[in-house]
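// run 5 | inverse folding | seed 20
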């Protein structure tokens, strides 16, 4: 959509039916990894999202892109319960190093969409033995309530028509394709593990279909970049299986 300083009260919907976004402001942001352009957007539900853009991405059919779900504990405070902070830093580094691409920071995605307070309640349950999936279920909340319509709309607005998506989550590839973004490739984004995050990551692998190699090796999954074949077709998450976790 075309940026509009008159600030229409409701963003238009995209042809694919996803909610549109409204571009609010932008500024240059120097980071430890290089200079990026930060663009703020308002989604139809009022949530404000950010895109950190490197170089000229308009018209790109294979832009390196990360859609990062907000995680205050991991991104801001460096919590080792999850790999979010390390993934965010690595995504910014890769996009800045490549010189073109974007990290879209999706707010309202805290705890896979359940919110920060509910995430802390789920953490408490995990400390009694439940895994991240069962904890959400025990609270009567969705295992994954995130929607990527706003993320897709932001990519549309930036002029990105296709992406190489930095993710370990096949469901994210499927969701983006459903919103009209062509996923040319999936690029693994592996962060070093810690004792605290290992059980969580194993659950994401065994119960949520995340593609995480090396969790059983002492060195953890982080390793050289490995590109996997395009995964633009429907990906079915594996049936729930007993979590292979340490006590
Ligand atoms: Zn996190």
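// decoded
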């Amino acid at each position: 959509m075309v940026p509009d300083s008159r600030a229409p009260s409701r963003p238009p919907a995209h042809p694919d039916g996803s909610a549109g976004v409204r571009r609010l402001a932008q500024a240059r942001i120097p980071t430890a990894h290089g200079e990026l352009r930060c663009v703020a957007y308002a989604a139809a539900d009022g949530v404000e999202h950010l895109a950190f853009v490197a170089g000229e991405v308009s018209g790109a059919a294979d832009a390196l892109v990360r859609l990062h779900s907000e995680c205050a504990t991991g991104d801001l405070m460096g919590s080792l319960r999850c790999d979010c902070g390390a993934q965010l830093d690595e995504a910014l580094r890769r996009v800045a190093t490549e010189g073109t691409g974007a990290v879209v920071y999706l707010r309202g995605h805290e705890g896979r969409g359940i919110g920060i307070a509910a995430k802390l309640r789920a953490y408490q349950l995990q400390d009694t033995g439940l895994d991240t999936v069962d904890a959400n279920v025990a609270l009567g909340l969705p295992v994954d309530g995130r929607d990527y319509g706003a993320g897709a709309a932001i990519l549309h607005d930036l002029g990105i028509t296709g992406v190489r998506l930095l993710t370990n989550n096949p469901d994210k590839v499927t969701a983006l394709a459903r919103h009209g973004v062509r996923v040319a490739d999936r690029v693994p984004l592996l962060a070093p593990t810690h004792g605290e995050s290992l059980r969580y990551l194993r659950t994401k692998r065994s119960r949520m279909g995340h593609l995480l190699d090396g969790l059983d090796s002492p060195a953890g999954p982080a390793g050289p970049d490995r590109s996997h074949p395009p995964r633009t077709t429907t990906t079915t998450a594996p049936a729930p299986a007993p979590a292979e976790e340490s006590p």
